[in-house]
Amino acid sequence: MKALQARQLSKTYRKAKRPALDGLDLEIDSGQIFTMLGRNGAGKTTFLRIASTQLLPSSGSVTVLGLDAIRDAKQLRERIAITPQEAETIYPLTPRDHILLNLRMRGMEKKEAMERAEQALKDLELTEVADTNSDWLSGGLKQRVIVAMALRTDAELIFLDEPSIGLDPLNRRKVWDQLTRLKESGKTIVLTTHYMDEAEALSDNLVIINKGKVMAEGTPQSVKVAVTKRTTRVDVQDKFTGNELGRYGHVVEIAGRFRVLTDAEAAKSLGDEALARGASISISPVTLDDVFVDIVGEAERGEEREG
Ligand SMILES: Nc1ncnc2c1ncn2[C@@H]1O[C@H](COP(=O)(O)OP(=O)(O)O)[C@@H](O)[C@H]1O
Ligand SMILES: [Mg+2]
Fold this sequence. Notes:
It is a single chain. By secondary structure, this protein is α/β, with parallel strands linked by helices. The chain folds into two domains: 2-218, P-loop containing nucleotide triphosphate hydrolases (Rossmann fold), CATH 3.40.50.300; 225-306, Alpha-Beta Plaits (2-Layer Sandwich), CATH 3.30.70. It is 39% helix and 26% strand. It has eleven helices and 14 strands. It has a six-stranded mixed beta sheet with strand order 6-7-8-3-9-10, with helices on both faces. Strand 9 and strand 10 form a beta hairpin. Helix 3 (95-105) packs parallel to helix 5 (139-151) and helix 4 (110-123) crosses helix 5 (139-151). The radius of gyration is 22 Å and the shape is globular. It binds adenosine-5'-diphosphate and magnesium ion. Residues 13, 16, 20, 38, 40-46 line the site of adenosine-5'-diphosphate.
C-alpha cells in the first residue's frame, strides 16, 4: 500500500524568486523508512510541512494514508506525528512533561500515556534527566526529547525533519535504532537529512532532491549504481594533475586532493598508471556521498553554464 503520494507538488512562497517545490512527484510505500536527501534550501522542510498539513501548496496534490492532505487535514492529523526541524523545548517543562503532554493531547488515556512516556524516555536514554527543567539540558539532550515525543504515539506515519541534527555519533545511532524499531512495528517513517551516511544506513528508499525537484530515487544501492554508472572511486594522493585524471572519469577536488569517480575498469588502468609512477592511490566502492556530489554538483554546474 502507498503511504504517501505527491503529484506535481509545487510551492512558491510569497515574494520568493524561485519555487521551493517545483513539480515534485513522489510515492512512498508503507512500512518503510523513506529519506529525503538534499542540501540546505532543497525544499525538504517545505515538502514535510505540506504533507503533514501545516502548509498549503501552490499547486498539485498530496495524499497521505489515503487522505487528501488539504481536504482531509483534520482526520489526517490524528494518524500522523511530526518532529519539526529545530523544534524548541518549552521553558518550565521537563522531558517527561513534553512526552506525556504530547501523548495526552493526541487523546491518549492517562494510564497508557504515562506508560508510553516512560518507555519513550528509556528509548532515548533520557530517564536520568526526565525531571530536569528542559531549558537546562544540552542541545543534544533537547533534540532527543523532541524526537522522543514522536516515538511512542499511536501515529501510523511519522515525519521527522532532520531528527539527528546536533547529535553526536553515538546518540545519532540511538535515534537510528529507534526509527528502525518503529519500522519493524509496522509504521512508516519519512525523514529528511543532509547526512549521506544516515540515509545510507537507514533508508529502504530515498530521493535526492535539489531545488524542489527529484534528482534521483530508489534504494541507496540502486541510486548509487544506476544513477551515475560510476561505481568506483579512486583517491589520488600525488603525482597526477586534474587534467591527466580527467580521462579516467569524473574528477572531484576535495581539500586539495583529487578523487576520480569512475567504473572498475578505468580504476584498474589508473591503478596501473599510478604504480608505474610510484604514486599512492586508494580504490573503493562509491558512497552515497559521492553520488550526491556527482548529481547535485552536475546540476549546479549545468545551471552556471546556462547563466
Ligand atoms: N517561510 C518562507 N518564506 C519564504 N521562503 C521560504 C520560507 N521557507 C523556506 N523558504 C525558501 O524555500 C526554499 C526551500 O526551503 P526549505 O524547504 O526550508 O529547504 P530545506 O528544508 O531542504 O533546507 C529555500 O530557498 C528557502 O529559502
Ligand atoms: Mg529543512
